[in-house]
Structure formats: C-alpha cells, structure tokens
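go over whats below:
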Amino acid sequence: MRSLRSAAPASDGSCGWHSPRLLHLSIYTILSRRSVRRHNAVSARAFVAVDTDEVASLLP
C-alpha cells in the first residue's frame, strides 16, 4: 500500500514543469507578451502618423 501511494503522484504527471497548468500559464504569458508588443508597435505607428499629420497641417 505504501509503495502505491508514493508512486501515485509521480505517475499522474502533475509535478514539476510537466504540469498542464504551468504549461498553459507559460503559453498564455508568451502570447500575451507578443500581443502587448504588437499593440505597442501599432500604437507607435499611429502616434507617428498623427504627429506627422499635425506637422503637415502647420505648413503653408
């Protein structure tokens, strides 16, 4: 009985890095970081476009 109890946690794969929860969390973190970078790039482009538009409107 005792050996079955000690072997049970290792056999279900819920310990260490192979945990589905940790794997899901890392994938979510990577995707969210990518989306933040993409959002920052789009925002920067939009800001530059608005900024150059304002400068162009000041020209005679």
Residues 22-59 form one domain.
